Amino acid sequence: GIFPPIPTPFVDGEVADHKLAANIEKWSQTGLKGLVVMGSNGEYVYLSAQEKRKLVEKTVELTPDPMLVIAGTGCESTKETIELTRDCADRGVQAALVVTPHYYAGKMNDAAMLAYFTAVADQSPIPILLYNVPKFTHVNLTYRLVSQLSNHPNIVGIKDSTGNVI
User: Fold this and answer.
1) pTM
2) Residue of 49, 145, 61, 140 lying closest to 102 (CA atoms)
3) Which of 26, 38, 152, 165 could link 72 by a cystine bridge, Cβ 3.0 to 4.6 Å?
4) Per-residue confidence band for 101, with pLDDT thresholds at 50, 70 and 90
5) How far apart, in whole angstroms, are the C-alpha atoms of residue 11 and residue 99?
6) Pairing of β 10-11 and β 14-15
């Protein structure tokens, strides 16, 4: 099914729950399989930790069954990513979309990415989707690494935003 990355609506710099509700109401009538909250389109980098959790909670609350909710939970720190992933799972999210850490892009080689994603997947109560978006992160997951990570039982897919279909 299709899981669009949803925008986070703001009014005067605050997350606008009423606009989120109106959007989810419209999307729920389209045949979508589910929604992705806090992806790049959701401006997650501009949300505080508290706002992220509240947004996820509200999205899950407003999303009707049988639609699913995937939440972007990737952070720069492994510990913070695991914590946010667990918190989102506790709020009813069915899977986590985990972007590559990228602040120290020059150090984010295959070994570092393998350690990061393995630790997150090992400690996550919900399935993990890798998120490869080098346009924003300047870190690209190699096909060798993706192949290796695909063997992890809790890594179930990838959102690859490279545009490279080869």
Assistant:
1) 0.95
2) 140
3) 38
4) very high
5) 27
6) antiparallel
